From TrEMBL, chain A:
Entry keyword set: Cell inner membrane, Cell membrane, Membrane, Transmembrane, Transmembrane helix, Transport
Protein name: ABC transporter permease
Cellular localisation: Cell inner membrane; Cell membrane
A Pfam family matched in the record: BPD_transp_1
Transmembrane found in the keyword field: yes
Length: 271, 277
């Protein structure tokens, strides 16, 4: 290839890659920025750009939106409880699966990861039918039942990943020095897999907090979760309070993400 | 931590059998009833689903949405992942840009698209100020809008596996290709893309399954006029109280997803030979 063709090749290649990457990055960032900008409006409707800036909708969200605050608290409780239960079950399962590549272990792992591909709407409908079968009414417990299944895959996945990196000779060393299995777990295994557990718990929490499909089938009238409340607001009235609530959620996400990256290096487990 | 730890899988296993396995079997069992009152065993529900052009349309539109979303995400996700691998100094920033939307609530991100595409939204305002349009364009509640919003929602799930795939390519192979006289484009087509196939398949699997079952984005950006499978399930179960038919729709969606996942997995096993063989 002569020099000009070579230059043209390189130039066109990088132009296309950079343009598309810029468009991709714009797509990733734009929505959150737009929501935050809109939430700072001084007007009454969702216009972009906003006519003026003010924090009025955040004040309104904080002081006179009992429906949104109640839903926020319900979602927090639900996500925390579901994550806690799923963490205990998931970490135990991940250690039980261990490094084994046996067919039964692979089958079990596929079972534990299945909620990632099953539409949660179908799962929600199924659990609803199960509760109806036993004439158990819907309550916080039915919500929790579904959300634990939703959270578990993330914890199994990240905990398995960090457990696989643990050097098995350490476990042999601990055992041969006379440590009990529980002592080995507490002093050798746990400190090493803790970043994996924390990362999985974090991702599980965020997913539970965000889930609409399961909650739609499994919540009773009294326990409405935040994403469903916001969904209804956006569908019915396009209230600016929804933008303010979104602004709060984005801020919480950014802060918790930076914190988890520091504490547990979460991004490693997402690749 | 020896063989004796196997029992530790039992609690989660029991939980999954009880609250994932049995519920799904129950849906299948219910779908085999002919009337909303659960009388008559048969496959009338499935016949009803596939004999009606409206229902087939809902299924096809849902699958089409999955395909469109995947195509947009490959086109935009590949360059971002490529940039991540090619520019080490930008990695922290790029990873933040990819992970933030992934962890941000879907309702919030969908809401953003309602604001961007609405009558007084970003795009209509920009076009009106540029003097290109007099009255706002109807952007929201169109199939195109749903595909674009869905592509944004699912984009991180395409980028992450692609980063792993591109990052795993031996730089010497690329160098060899250049030394032997192949240009950038030819190297991309003949070396980089084939080696990325496993990552592309993983990304496709995640994006497609996410897009076809994303209730919130489909309903908020699509509005009442466009029907997709997830809302159809909800509508039949809760609004029409027709559990057997809702179960049929759910099983059809589930089976379609499982079929596509197994095709992608089979392709993945073949393409792994490509990379390591």
């Amino acid at each position: 290839m002569d020099k000009t063709r070579r230059r043209l090749d390189r130039w066109s290649y990088w132009t296309v890659i950079l343009l598309l990457a810029a468009l991709g990055l714009l797509m990733l960032a734009l929505p959150s920025l737009i929501v935050v900008a809109t939430s700072l409006t001084s007007g009454y409707s969702l216009r972009f750009p906003p006519p003026g800036l003010s924090l009025r909708w955040y004040r309104s969200l904080l002081f006179d939106s009992p429906d949104i605050t109640a839903a926020f608290v319900t979602s927090l409780k639900l996500a925390a409880a579901a994550t806690a239960i799923a963490t205990v079950l998931g970490v135990a399962a991940a250690i039980g699966l261990g490094r084994r590549g046996a067919p039964w272990a692979r089958l079990l792992e596929a079972l534990f990861l299945s909620p990632l591909t099953i539409p949660s709407l179908a799962l929600g409908l199924g659990i609803l039918v199960l509760f109806n079968l036993f004439s158990a009414g819907l309550s916080f417990a039915s919500l929790l039942t579904g959300h634990v299944a939703l959270c578990a895959p993330y914890i199994v996945f990240t905990t398995s990943a960090s457990y696989a990196q643990l050097d098995p000779t350490w476990l042999d060393a601990s055992r041969s020095l006379g440590a009990s299995p529980f002592f080995t777990f507490r002093r050798v295994v746990l400190p090493n897999i803790l970043p994996g557990i924390l990362s999985g718990a974090f991702i599980a929490f965020m997913n539970s907090f965000d889930n609409v499909a399961l909650s739609l089938f499994l919540s009773d009238g009294r326990s409405e979760v935040l994403p469903i409340r916001l969904w209804h607001i956006i569908e019915d009235s396009l209230d600016v309070r929804a933008a303010a609530a979104s602004g709060v959620l984005i801020a919480i996400t950014v802060l918790s993400m930076l914190l988890m990256e520091r504490v547990a290096g979460t991004s490693r487990f997402l690749r | 931590m020896s063989r004796t730890t196997t029992w530790l899988t039992a609690p989660l296993c029991l939980y999954f059998v009880g609250f994932v396995g049995i519920p799904l079997l129950l849906i299948f069992f219910i779908s085999l009833h002919d009337t909303p009152a659960m009388t008559g065993i048969g496959i009338k529900g499935y016949i009803r689903f596939f004999s009606d052009a409206y229902n087939r349309g809902v299924l096809l539109d849902t699958l089409l949405l999955g395909v469109e979303t995947t195509v947009i995400d490959i086109l935009l996700g590949f360059p971002v992942a490529y940039l991540y691998v090619a520019a080490p100094r930008w990695r922290r920033f790029l990873m933040f840009m990819v992970l933030l939307p992934l962890l941000t609530s879907t309702v919030v991100r969908t809401f953003a698209w309602v604001v961007i595409l609405g009558n007084h939204g970003l795009i209509n305002t920009l076009l009106a100020q540029a003097g290109l349009i007099g009255t706002p364009l109807r952007l929201l509640y169109t199939p195109g809008a749903v595909a674009v919003a869905m592509a944004q929602i699912e984009l991180p799930l395409m980028i992450l596996p692609l980063i792993t795939a591109i990052g795993g390519i031996d730089a010497h192979i690329i160098e060899a290709s250049h030394v032997l006289g192949a240009g950038r484009w030819r190297t991309l087509r003949r070396i980089v893309l084939p080696l990325c196939v496993p990552g592309l398949l993983t990304g496709t699997l995640l994006v497609f399954t996410g897009a076809v079952s994303a209730l919130v984005t489909q309903t908020l950006v699509g509005g009442g006029q466009l029907a997709f499978m997830p809302f159809y399930i909800y509508q039949q179960a809760i609004q029409a109280q027709d559990y057997p038919f809702a179960a049929c729709v759910a099983i059809v969606l589930l089976m379609t997803i499982l079929l596509i996942v197994s095709i992608l997995n089979a392709l993945g096993r073949r393409s792994a030979g490509y990379v390591h063989g």
